[in-house]
Specification:
Chain A is an alpha/beta fold. In chain A, the strands form 2 sheets. A 4-stranded parallel β-sheet of chain A has the order 2-1-3-4. Chain A has a 4-stranded parallel β-sheet with strand order 6-5-7-8, with helices on both faces. The longest helix of chain A has 23 residues. In chain A, strand 7, helix 14 and strand 8 form a beta-alpha-beta unit. In chain A, helix 1 packs parallel to helix 8. By secondary structure, chain B is α/β, with parallel strands linked by helices. Chain B has 3 domains: 126 residues, 3-Layer(aba) Sandwich (Rossmann fold), CATH 3.40.50; 68 residues; 180 residues, Rossmann fold (3-Layer(aba) Sandwich), CATH 3.40.50. Helix content of chain B is 57%, strand content 11%. In chain B, helix 1 links the parallel strand 1 and strand 2. In chain B, helix 12 crosses helix 13. The radius of gyration of chain B is 22 Å and the shape is globular. Classes of the chains: A alpha/beta (357), B alpha/beta (387). The interface between A and B is large, with 43 and 48 residues. The complex binds iron/sulfur cluster (2 copies). The site of one iron/sulfur cluster has 13 residues of chain B, from helix 14. The site of one iron/sulfur cluster has 11 residues of chain A, from helix 3 and helix 14.
Chain lengths: 357, 387
């Protein structure tokens, strides 16, 4: 039995339930790094070149956090998650592609890194192939691997369903990993029911018309999972919005089908998995399930986002949807974020009042 | 139909010739200048990489000059370059400019689309298929000849006796080439041009440092964006070689797999064959330069360039392992010539010192240790350098 460490950063927010279940079923202990703190970020900054984006820095910090605490650190090389795009060449951001190598070059006395190259555009069986390979390396027999894989896939599916019901990742993870999926699903359904009532008629915002008291402001928050779900790097934006009584929608609350239904609006699909999800999710909230405003959380000097953000800005402008980009970097302060958020919400409130009168 | 295209180094000579040859009216973008940058920066996303901004600026300039269509290349990832044209088109629309951007995607990904677009241009110019194909072949020869001349000029420059001779010779040769009308003439012009360059008066006793330049293709190829770094190095008496030229780039990516070596060399440090842009090349080429005894490596990368940031993160390890200094420039619209020059000079001094030291050790061992002769092939040169 080994202890396997999983950094709480980047793809963690989407795939952790799978990883944890899989390794535990194989009989290993899984430890995730602690939630991001200043200390973790600082360590990450020290290990990376200054031009790297903050999520990459944070990732390095989390690896440092796990160092010497575990036998292996699991750092998958996520190349592609599916076959998609105009040429079927969708990948992850190039920084994901080079991630294990960046780690190896910048952190010296690293606990052995467990690598696995996931290039799922190759075909359906690829996922199992990679994980069974990994399992074999960990000394498990084939039957055990099959069982673990099946369990993990199931948990992952439950998890994604909870997300699509509108539950935030931290909650959803807790629920599926504690095995209380049913309860959570129920809670989710209730929430969805509430959404249904509060939902603005499809015919458009103009006729929403109901008093704002029990009709909370609906806001789409789009961005990469590691930017919107890590409360440290976005200085608690989501919970602040929650507290302000705003109903938050993210692209992860949409099913793959719903997302894909928006793809035709792009002249050319983006090349990156997470970016496609962001763009398609945003378009969905612009056209199919209208929200009152949209916030895009983006990282300073993020390559793909230079395109994604401009794209969303233009599309939102064409539709007259209030849009705000929030850029996160290592100096993002709570005060500044709070002010901008409040100003944005005030503006939405003002628009609403104007519409009603 | 007035057609324009992105400008990269000297390749515009070949492109302009090609378009005119097939009967299209061609607008050559001006060499990127301050106005280009200003325009580009104003209308581009803040974190777009510098090639995007420069192209944006130059598209606006050619639109102003009356271009109806801009021809460019597409791509299928994983880096942003293949998405440039979509964004450029969108931004032009937003500004209210009518110019259209037409991109040729990789023919491997969709041959019919490729042919359809080619045909569109052929019809617009009214050239016969035969003539069209001939013109392409000739233009391709021109691209290769331009690269050959440029490469030679960088070899000659550090030895030139009168500063500026090489640059003048290069202009002269390029002028000859520009006049060539078919493949035979191109070949003649090439020979003639190379001869002119070789005849530049040189002091062959010099022993210049050897430096390899690696990085992202656009900033490598467009001297106005890298502050004419390769020339600058030549003027400082350094033999600067770069690994990427348009002809070899296009050759490698559409026709053959000549990059195997580079990838192989990169593998121990970056175990992924393609991370977009020239990220893998940057690692692999550094390894190769180190193996071939170069004194140092300079990496040129656009600010926020994804693959080059990955490369930059890994290069310190390569540099340590193979004992070769690497200097990185992240270039953006604020990069100034003076700044580049100062950093370069410091780097060159460092390389100079290292070389002296290494040679000190070597020549010491030369005296004390009886070693097989072949190993000291470099020795006679050493003496020449010292005086
Ligand atoms: S998508 Fe952006 S934020 Fe994410 S790793 Fe790539 S550059 Fe960084
Ligand atoms: S390789 Fe660098 S410069 Fe080229 S498109 Fe990608 S990020 Fe931009």
């Amino acid at each position: 039995m080994a202890t396997i460490g999983i950094p709480r950063a980047l793809a963690y927010y989407i795939y952790f339930p799978f990883w944890k279940t899989y390794f535990e079923e194989l009989g290993h202990e899984v430890i995730e790094s602690s939630p991001t703190t200043r200390d973790i970020l600082d360590k990450g900054i020290k290990d990376t070149v200054s031009d790297a984006c903050i999520p990459i820095k944070v990732f390095h910090g989390h690896v440092e956090d796990l160092k010497n605490k575990v036998d292996y650190i699991f750092v998958p090389r996520l190349v592609s998650m599916r076959k998609f795009g105009d040429f079927g060449t969708e990948t992850m951001c190039p920084k994901f592609l080079g991630l294990p190598d960046m780690l190896a070059a910048s952190i010296n006395d690293l606990s052995p890194v467990m690598e696995a190259r996931l290039d799922l555009k190759k075909g359906k069986s690829e996922l199992f192939k990679v994980y069974s390979e990994l399992g074999k390396r960990l000394g498990a027999d084939f039957l055990l691997i099959c069982r673990a894989f099946r369990r993990a896939s199931k948990i992952q599916k439950d998890y994604e369903q909870l997300l699509q019901r509108g539950i935030m990742p931290d909650m959803a993870m807790q629920e599926v990993l504690a095995g209380s999926y049913k309860k959570a699903a129920l809670a989710g359904r209730e929430r969805e029911g509430a959404n249904q009532q509060a939902r603005i008629p499809k015919s458009g915002l103009g006729q929403a018309g109901s008093p704002s008291g029990d009709n909370p402001c609906s806001l789409a928050v789009v961005g990469y999972p590691y930017a919107i779900y890590d409360p440290y790097i976005n200085v608690g934006l989501i919970s602040a919005l929650d507290q302000a009584g705003v109903r938050v929608y993210t692209q992860d609350m949409l099913s793959h089908r719903q997302l894909k239904s928006q793809a035709f609006k792009l002249d050319k699909d983006m090349f990156w998995y997470f970016s496609n999800r962001v763009v398609q999710g945003a378009l969905y909230y612009m056209d199919v399930k209208p929200v009152e405003g949209m916030i895009h959380i983006t990282a300073f000097a993020c390559g793909p986002d230079s395109i994604v953000d401009k794209f969303l800005e233009i599309e939102a402008k064409r539709r007259g949807l209030p849009y705000m980009a929030i850029m996160i970097d290592e100096h993002t302060g709570e005060a500044g974020m709070q002010t901008r958020m409040e100003a944005f919400l005030d503006m939405l409130e003002y628009r609403r009042k104007k519409r009603e009168s | 139909m007035k057609v324009s295209f992105p400008r990269m180094g000297y390749s515009h000579l070949a492109f302009r010739w090609l378009m005119e040859e097939v009967g299209l009216e061609c607008i050559v973008p001006p060499e990127p200048n301050n106005e280009t940058l200003d325009l580009g920066v104003r209308y581009s996303p803040e974190f777009a990489c510098i090639p995007f901004k420069v192209l944006m600026g130059s598209y606006l300039q050619v639109a102003e000059m009356g271009a109806d269509v801009i021809v460019t290349s597409g791509g299928c990832g994983p880096c942003r370059a293949g998405y440039y044209w979509v964004m450029h088109q969108k931004l032009l629309e937003e500004i209210g400019v009518k110019t259209k951007v037409i991109a040729f995607e990789d023919p491997m990904c969709g041959i019919w689309d490729f042919i359809r677009k080619l045909n569109l241009f052929r019809n617009a110019g009214g050239a016969s298929i035969r003539h069209f194909v001939q013109a392409f072949k000739t233009a391709w020869e021109k691209v290769k000849a331009i690269d050959d001349m440029e490469i030679l000029s960088y070899e000659v420059r550090p030895y030139e006796i009168t500063k500026g001779d090489t640059s003048r010779a290069l202009q002269l040769s390029l002028g000859l080439l520009d006049k060539a009308k078919d493949r035979k003439e191109v070949e003649e012009a090439r020979q003639e041009g190379l001869k002119i360059l070789k005849e530049v008066p040189q002091d062959i006793n010099r022993d210049p440092l050897k430096v390899g330049i690696i990085g992202e293709i656009y900033v490598l190829l467009e001297p106005s964006i890298n502050q004419y770094m390769q020339q600058m190095l030549g003027d400082m008496g350094v033999r600067a070689e770069r690994s990427i030229y348009l002809s070899s780039y296009t050759r490698n990516n559409t026709f053959s797999q000549g990059e195997q070596d580079v990838r192989q060399a990169a593998r121990p440090y970056l175990n992924e064959t393609c991370i977009g842009g020239h990220g893998v090349n940057s690692i692999g080429e550094t390894v190769l330069y180190a193996r071939h005894g170069y004194d140092g490596v300079i990496q040129l990368a656009p600010f926020s360039c994804i693959p080059e940031i990955v490369a930059r993160s890994i290069l310190p390890r390569v540099s340590r392992d193979l004992d070769i200094p690497v200097l990185t420039f992240f270039l953006d619209e604020q990069t100034s010539r003076a700044g580049v020059e100062t950093r370069l000079e410091a780097f060159i001094d460092l390389l100079e010192m290292r070389r002296e030291k290494k040679r000190g050790i070597k020549s010491a061992s030369l005296i004390t240790l009886p070693t097989p002769r072949a190993k000291f092939d470099a020795a006679p040169k050493l003496v020449a350098a010292d005086k």
